[in-house]
Every structure is written in structure tokens, then in C-alpha cells.
Amino acid sequence: MSSPVISLLVVMGVSGCGKSSVGLALRDRLMQDNHQVCIYLDADHYHGQENIDKMQRGISLTDADRFPWLVRCQQAVSKEAEASVNKLTIILACSALKKKYRKVLIDNDKYSTIFIYLKCSKDEIKQRQAYRIGHFFNPDLIDSQFSTLEEPDPKNEPKVIVVDGDQRPVSAVVSIIQDALSYYE
Length: 185
Ligand SMILES: Nc1ncnc2c1ncn2[C@@H]1O[C@H](COP(=O)(O)OP(=O)(O)OP(=O)(O)O)[C@@H](O)[C@H]1O
Ligand SMILES: O=C(O)[C@H](O)[C@@H](O)[C@H](O)[C@H](O)CO
Fold this sequence. Notes:
This protein is of the alpha/beta class and 185 residues long.
């Protein structure tokens, strides 16, 4: 399969599954080993203050809270895609918990999209959230993250890579993703 000019890799999953850590490390790896021009975007930067306040108070976001945020994420990806004159890989760390949320992020006219789902157990997430400091996410929301999650099924959604996100360290998770991505090159 020939490489598309612009690719979007969405690193997705519940809060604490490693989207930011894995996304950033994947960017570095693809730039270093695969000599790809790669940029990293974090969906957390596109939340409005109301969403952040809600999450801090332990109130889960609704579809209505998430849609404008997802649109802003998609617009940020589009902007990067439109500005690029060369082959580019955009990595977006975004929970993208439901199928209809993932659809918002796709724009087949501008870039091809692969979803990389970091599948984590609730026990692992609870442990990670307990040790995490300085983040707005309230650990009381862990249950609601799992109940909201519609796991992407590679049979029904195109281009989905499912990775065991419980694995340590982050570099091991990145190596598995790097191997899986080689099938799409
Ligand atoms: N594979 C891993 N092995 C060990 N620690 C990990 C791994 N993935 C993530 N962590 C740790 O778990 C915590 C949460 O990771 P991270 O912030 O990357 O998750 P996230 O999905 O981006 O979270 P959020 O959606 O809330 O921003 C961090 O302290 C990070 O160092
Ligand atoms: O509920 C959600 O869709 C997610 O939790 C995101 O909105 C958060 O940004 C993030 O995962 C917490 O840092």
C-alpha cells in the first residue's frame, strides 16, 4: 500500500491509558527511526474552561460538552494538514471514546486516519490516576470513562490498531505500534 501524503494517528482511550506519554514517544520514534515529519497535538488543549471545571469537579462530560471540543480538535488537525506541503504524520492524543466522536475526527479528503486504541484495565488506570499529580482529571470519573467507552472494533471501523496499554514501559507500547503501522506503509 502506498503511503498517503498526510496521515492522522489518533492515540485514544480512557483518561490515564497513556495517550500523551505514548503519543509523544511515538512522535519521537517515528521521526528518529522512520525519518517522518511528525507533529503532536493534545486534545486536552482544546477543551473550554467549562469542560475542565466539570472534570475537576468529578462531573462527566456529555455529548453536548464533547462535540464542540472534538470539532476544535478536528479543525486543528485540518489546519496542520492544509499547511503542509510535504508528507506529514499528525499524532492526536484524544480519548475519542465513542464511535460517533471518532467520526468527527475523520476527513478523508484531507488525510487518512488510523485509530490506535490503548486498551487498559480499570485496575491499572486506578493505580496510575492515584499516583498522577497536577492534572485536572478527577479520579472519581474513572468508572464513567469505562462506561462511556465504545471500544473500536477493527471489523466494523476501518484502520484500528488495538494495543495492550497496560504494558510497561511506554517504549514497549510504542514498539508494538511502530510494528503495526508498518502494515499500512
Ligand atoms: N505504558 C505505560 N507504562 C507505565 N506508565 C505509563 C504508561 N502509560 C502511561 N503511564 C503513566 O500513566 C499516567 C497517565 O499517562 P498519560 O498522562 O500519558 O495518560 P493520558 O491517557 O494522556 O491521560 P489523560 O487523558 O487524562 O490526559 C502518567 O503518569 C504516565 O507516566
Ligand atoms: O471524557 C473524555 O472524553 C476524556 O476524559 C477527555 O475529555 C479528557 O480530556 C481527558 O481524557 C482527561 O485528561
